[in-house]
Amino acid sequence: MDRRSRRLPVGPLRQDAVTPVAVVTGAAQGIGRATAVRLAADGFAVALVDLNADTLESAVREVAERDGKTVAIHADLASLDEVTRAIEQVQTTWGRLDALVNNAGREITKPFTEISPADWEAILSLDLRTVFFATQQAARAMIARGAEGRIVNIASIAGRSGRSDQAPYAAAKAGVISVTRSAARALATHRITVNAICPGIVDTAMTRRIHERRARELGVSPEESLRRMVGRIPLGRMASPDDVAAAVSFFCSPQASYITGQALNVCGGIEMD
Q: What is the DSSP string of the chain?
């Protein structure tokens, strides 16, 4: 076949004139906010889900100012009832669901020997359990509609190599990678792709909070703590939220229709496996 006549595969998001719909959790700031803005630019109607009502409204305004169709859903996704409500609200509002980005999460930075059962439960409930059940709810909606779908889970390179002072977070993110692969196998026959992204050090408020705590333990400034960490990155800089959002955009695109069960590092080369 003449190479010039070959065409990119047509995925689920451009088969008709109906605007595709995406849900982004943890969308009020950082990676989630950048992802919502990027998907809106890609032509999605975007439901932004977050617990922080003030920053959520600000994020919705940012998307709307760029002519994106959007809705804010205030929800505590640590509650599985709230997960169900959020997915159902999107279907009630727009009548479809084409893509889910599981970004909501939290972290705790403590020495391994000081982690309590409450710390463990708090991290695993949002960072792993919610990802599983949001994926399940979204998959049910996609299957019921009989159309292809995209699910992208935000994991972390911590889930690949572990963290001495973030053990619950690293365990949860390792679980997210595993859930991604299990879901990819389970949902492939329904033409639903499921992939994960493993960010490294991203320039967000959460990263700054982590280094403030680490700096106190090391007896250095937060800037010095961060400088040491950035010094480990082969590409020599932190990721921006937009770097991660670009990877999400690709996984949600027609061009990624034959990619599933993958965990993509977006980390400047810290992890290469």
A: --GGG--PPP-TTSSSSSPPEEEEES-SSHHHHHHHHHHHHTT-EEEEEES-HHHHHHHHHHHHHTT--EEEEE--TTSHHHHHHHHHHHHHHHS---EEEE---------GGG--HHHHHHHHIIIIIHHHHHHHHHHHHHHHHT--EEEEEE--THHHH--TT-HHHHHHHHHHHHHHHHHHHHHGGGTEEEEEEEE-SB-SHHHHHHHHHHHHHHTS-HHHHHHHHHTT-TTSSPBPHHHHHHHHHHHTSGGGTT--S-EEEESTTS---
- Provide the pLDDT for residue 6: 37
Give the pLDDT of residue 16: 55
Please give the C-alpha separations between residue 181 and each of 73, 123, 184, 234, in angstroms, as whole numbers. 28, 21, 5, 28
Active site positions, annotated? 169
Q: Which CATH number fits domain 16-200+240-265: 2.30.110.10, 3.30.1490.190, 3.40.50.720, 3.30.420.40?
A: 3.40.50.720
pLDDT of 216 = 81
**pTM for this predicted structure:** 0.90
Domain with CATH 3.40.50.720 in the chain: 16-200+240-265
Low-confidence residues of the chain: pLDDT under 50: 1-12, 14
Report the pLDDT value the prediction gives residue 4, as an integer from 0 to 100.
Answer: 39
pLDDT at 126: 96
Looking at the DSSP bridge assignments, the partners of residue 189 are none
